[in-house]
Amino acid sequence: MGGAETARLGGAGTRPVGLLAPRARLGAFVDALGDLALLTVDTGRIAVVHRPPARFVLEQMEQIGWRSLSIVGLTAIFTGMVLALQLGSYLERFGAKMFVSRIVGVSLVRELGPVLTALLFGGRVGAGITAELGSMAVTEQIDAIRALGASPVRNLVAPRLIATLVMLPALTVIGDVLGIFGGWFVAVTELHVKGDFYLNSLLQILLLQDVLSGLGKSVFFAYFIAIIACRNGLRVEGGADGVGRATTGTVVATSITILVSDYFLTKCFLLL
User: Fold this and answer.
1) 190-249 pLDDT, tens digit each
2) Other beta carbons less than 10 A from residue 2's beta carbon
3) How far is it, in rounded angstroms, from Cα 107 to Cα 45?
4) Residue 20 within any structural domain of the chain
5) Which residues are within 8 A (CB) of 218 and not within 5 positions of it... i.e. 6 or more apart?
6) 71, 124 contact by CB (below 8 A)
7) Nearest CA to 257 among 210, 222, 211, 205?
8) Cβ(255)–Cβ(155) under 8 Å?
9) For the stretch 20-51, what's the b/e string if a residue is b when 16 or more beta carbons lie within 10 angstroms of its beta carbon?
10) CB of 190 within 8 A of CB of 85?
């Protein structure tokens, strides 16, 4: 019997191949968590002690935030419009369509606004960060930075993390406002609800805690997106093919992390 057949059947002295894959994946997951923790510590220390150049941070804020405004705004507007249309049609059965603004506003501010903005942000910005740093890694530009005595974390990671932590909450606020406006437009034109009543009804029920809950989530989401994207970009190997795999992995990892962490963050903010 050949060696391949022995390995397949798990012969004497051979561990079944099927048992290795879960352990390998678990080991890779633990290694990734360790990398993220170390990168977080290094970035935090450098951001506090050796501040990154301000121009690097401003450049990243422009690339990360301003260039994402159009897609975030468009998504938020139509999300608010769809929510108002669907909920208004349902509430009309009970004669409560005039209160559609309360459900639309609270759901956008607490949940849909932060999550949808983060998912779009992670897909666009996270993939871009990984591709940019990965291209620098495979062309040995990052090694050249180290050879010159500079810190890749200070010049590459810290500006992107700071810019993401600033711009994602800002985009979340803009998205919430645009989503509420989209719901207002549908409520006025389709549901025949008075515009001033729509806004007044929302302001009567919307609390500061609701706004802070959504902003708090966006800060955590921003950290997850930036640190995962930077870690994957710095560890790219294998040329252009490796850059593509790392970019895809970043989009998947950030999306899953956002959705899973959203549940636990919601539990925490409800307890406050």
Assistant:
1) 988 999 999 999 999 999 999 999 999 999 999 999 999 999 999 888 888 889 999 999
2) 7
3) 37
4) no
5) 114, 117, 118, 168, 169, 172
6) yes
7) 222
8) no
9) eeeeeeeeeeeebeebbeebbebbeebbeeee
10) yes
Q: Measured at the alpha carbon of residue 72, what is the angle toward residues 248 and 81, in degrees to the nearest 5? A: 120
Q: What is the rounded distance in angstroms from the CA atom of residue 232 to the CA atom of residue 177?
A: 33
Whether residue 8 is predicted with pLDDT greater than 60 in this model: the reply is no
Range of the domain at 129: 53-271
Instruction: Find the range with the poorest average confidence among 1-10, 79-88, 168-177, 229-238.
Output: 1-10
Higher pLDDT: 84 or 13? It is 84
pTM of the shown model? 0.87
Q: Is residue 41 part of a domain?
A: no
Q: How many CA atoms lie within 13 A of 82 on its CB side?
A: 8
Helices and strands of the chain, counted as H and E runs: 13, 0
As for how many domains the chain has, the answer is 1
- Whether 253 has a pLDDT exceeding 70, the answer reads yes
Residue 39 belongs to a domain: no
The pLDDT score that the predictor gives to residue 16 is 52
DSSP notation for 171-221: HHHHHHHHHHHHHHHHHHHTS---HHHHHHHHHHH--HHHHHHHHHHHHHH
- 32-72 pLDDT tens trace: 888 889 999 988 888 888 888 889 899 999 988 888 999 99
User: How far apart (Å, rounded) are the C-alpha atoms in residues 215 and 20?
Assistant: 42
Question: Could you tell me what percentage of the chain is helix, strand and coil, using 3-state DSSP and rounding each to the nearest 5?
Answer: 85, 0, 15
When the pLDDT of each residue in the chain is averaged and rounded to a whole number, the result is 87
User: Is residue 6 a part of any domain in this protein?
Assistant: no
Q: How far is Cα of residue 183 from the mean position of the Cα atoms in its chain?
A: 24
